[in-house]
Design brief:
The structure is a single chain. This protein is of the alpha+beta class. The protein has two domains: 246 residues, Aminohydrolase, N-terminal nucleophile (Ntn) domain (Glutamine Phosphoribosylpyrophosphate, subunit 1, domain 1, 4-Layer Sandwich); 177 residues, Rossmann fold (3-Layer(aba) Sandwich). A hairpin with a 6-residue loop joins strand 5 and strand 6. Helix 9 crosses helix 10. 54% of the residues are buried.
Amino acid sequence: MKEACGVFGVYAPGRGVAHLTFDGIYALQHRGQESAGMAVSDGQTITVVKDMGLVSAVFDERTLSGLPGSLAIGHTRYSTHGSSDWANAQPVYRSVGRAGFALGHNGNLTNTPALTERAGMLTSIGASDSDVVAELLSQAVPADNEPASAGDHLRQALRTVLPGLEGAFSFVLLDATHVYGVRDPHGFRPLCLGRLGPVDHPEGWVLASESPALDVIGAAFVRELEPGELVVIDETGVHSEQLFAPEAIDAKLCIFEFVYFARPDTRLYGREVHGTRRHMGELLAEQAPVHADLVMGVPDSGVPAAEGYARRSGIPYGQGLIKNRYIGRTFIEPDQLTRANGVRRKLNPLRDNVAGKRLIVVDDSIVRGTTTRAIVGMLRDAGAAEVHLRISSPPFRWPCFYGIDTPNRDDLLAANLSLEAIAEFLDVDSIAYISLKNLKRAIDAPGAGFCDACLTGDYPVAVPVALRSPKAATVGAVATPADVDEAVGLQAALPGV
């Protein structure tokens, strides 16, 4: 029941919202490749279409042309620890009130069992946390005979239900005449607002997980939603309110959005992600220099950091791996065997570029080590003389309970091996990770809050599990950022560094 996905919403009368939503979730395809769906309202009826597969496989021109309306939401999903099947595809729909409502969710809740019990649902049915939230909202929607509009009905339900949720959520919702967007009080997952048309005469409004989904439909970026903020969009414009008490607001955007998840052209905290990744590489070159002939990045999210490393170190940058552009991201494949088998389908070495060379290979992260080990093996087979691995994030040592596919600490390479053992396992001549301090320096967003629990074990929202760790038997006794930085400073290196 753990999800991290891409969500999209649009209110644009007369603009063909189904086509806009298709383009929007297509731009968010990197956030999930298992299922896709959208819900469209014509003001009277909500139609939901969803299925397993990529956005382009679920929707075609015939499907889109049969979805008239003025407002829509869209969703593209990958499952983390939950099942990957049609029943868990989104948007989720509930038939209550005038036309019902639909919901799309990016994130993962940590108190789902308690919410399931509160909703009166059977825990054995395997419903996702998104289903549970939809059920709670449907129970909280006032009866139709009460003197309130459809928008007031769902808005009141959100005010009632959302303060009881724990964990990460960015929701988009739709009823007959309104589009809603809301972030949890920590803002773990991104959500931004865009405008269609000129400032003085808007033609519509858009919500999206990432700003490129606005760009692709010609919408102007307006701002990121604040943690805990609810926006309601209708014919009168955009209306905002804060659902949570001031003391509950504590911005903690997932730091891995900058490291890996977000597209390089996305803007977060006012920074374009590509530039921050390049800066990571520059600081990594200062922190962990090594003599080599070529700097290369692992496509795609390792490339900007590799460019930065090469520029700061003075070592030539070049390509060592070619990516099959028709293969998806191996990290978000639903199981480890699929990820492992997908590496060689996805990447192939440029033998003439790497043969006989001392390589600095820059990648964004190592989680399980499956992909990295296969990549190093390919480079060795292609004749690389040395492989020095540089990682533009600190060691990933702790499971994420807010939406990343790392439910078990036993699966995390850096949680179980020393740097020397990691280097031996991956068959590299040296390995170094960027420090947490330098990672935050690279992002360069003074005063901004981040969730770095996967790196430090410091969880902003309590998780109801005991973590197996030499330092912490339960949540509450956790590693600190200082502990991690101290460990990162110890590089595993063989002769030649």
